[in-house]
Specification:
Length: about 325
């Protein structure tokens, strides 16, 4: 079998013949009588790798089991540029799975340091297994350990995917969904409500004079006010409604299957709840309450999300122009 390396031949060395080898340090040969396998190992070549050399490439055929006599190897699942799945030390082996199942290698193996390996070809590998019951048992143990490592890596990968997905859709400060998530949801609601001929109303909410609040009490106080408003809005709407932080001190509330009359009631309930909410710092000191201005509009036939949000923005500006801490509607 030919194994391509990332370095030139001058960085490799192949030799044959007897070599110093402590069988007791090899996981594959634990509790194995040396006499049972020494003759088979003496004929195996030694391979020297420079740091960074690629020993096994994912997707390529491998018919050699490598025993690490010295140095370290890295195992990468997708690419050598990604963090390694495992780092193998002297005394460990690599390549056994593709030798057993005859399938292309499932991972990249790269020299983490300069390394010296013993290359055991497929025929000698099976001779070792047949020559010693202990070798066969040790191989089963190694494969079981690798399987557990793979399961752990998959589980960790899934956990990280959940975290990345949550960060991609959630506003870190308030815990609400973010603008990107809400815009996608709005498009789906527009389509669904249009098809079902149901009303859809939106509220664009802005914290009144948040910049002045930050200037007087500090940015940390402003963050606590944002969180208080977010949680108040979230708990003032129905389970089927949605609340997201839209930008800065702005929040967007989607009210599916709700006409202007129902949205007006929901908006007034949210406005009053925010005015009554307590803004508390981490040290439990109480800050002055904040108020919100709200712009309300209802979906029209063939509305786009951009048109609906623009109408809500116009209604919000009217509310702010009317003195803030109030609701304004835009009927189209």
């Amino acid at each position: 079998m030919h194994v391509e390396l990332a370095t030139n031949l001058g960085q490799q060395n192949h030799t044959r013949g007897p070599m110093p080898l402590s069988l007791s340090n090899m996981a594959l040969f634990a509790n194995v009588e040396p006499e049972a396998i020494e003759g088979l190992l003496e004929a195996c070549p030694r391979r020297e790798l420079a740091e960074g050399s690629v020993l096994i490439r994912r997707g390529e055929t491998n018919r050699t089991l490598y025993l690490i006599l010295d140095g370290r190897l890295r195992v990468h699942l997708d690419s050598p540029d990604n963090p390694p799945l495992a780092v193998l030390e002297s005394g460990e082996s690599v390549g056994e799975l593709s030798v057993i199942d005859h399938k292309p290698a499932s991972a990249w193996v790269v020299a983490d340091t300069a390394a010296v390996l013993l290359a055991v070809d497929q025929e000698r590998f099976w001779s070792l297994v047949h020559a010693s019951h202990a070798v066969a048992c040790n191989m089963l143990g190694i494969l079981a350990q690798r399987l557990r490592q793979s399961d752990a890596a998959i589980s960790e990968g899934q956990r990280l995917q959940r975290i990345y997905k949550r960060h991609a859709t959630t506003d870190e400060l308030t815990g609400l969904y973010n603008r990107r998530w809400m815009q996608n949801l709005l498009r789906r609601h527009l389509m669904r409500c249009s098809m079902n001929r149901q009303p859809l109303s939106v509220l664009l909410v802005d914290i009144d004079r948040l910049r002045d609040f930050n200037a007087e009490f500090g940015r940390a106080a402003g963050d606590h006010a944002l969180f208080a408003v977010a949680q108040t809005l979230l708990h003032s709407v129905r389970p089927g409604d949605s609340v997201a932080r839209y930008s800065g001190g702005h929040f967007l509330v989607l009210l599916p299957a709700t006409d202007v009359g129902g949205a007006r009631i929901a908006a007034e309930r949210a406005r009053q709840a925010v005015a009554d909410a307590v803004v508390m710092m981490s040290d439990e000191s109480i800050l002055p309450s904040v108020t919100v201005s709200i712009g309300l509009t209802q979906m029209q036939p063939f509305d786009t999300s951009e048109a609906l949000l623009a109408a809500a923005g116009v209604a919000l500006e009217r509310a702010k122009a009317s003195g803030r801490n109030c609701l304004s509607e835009l009927t189209r």
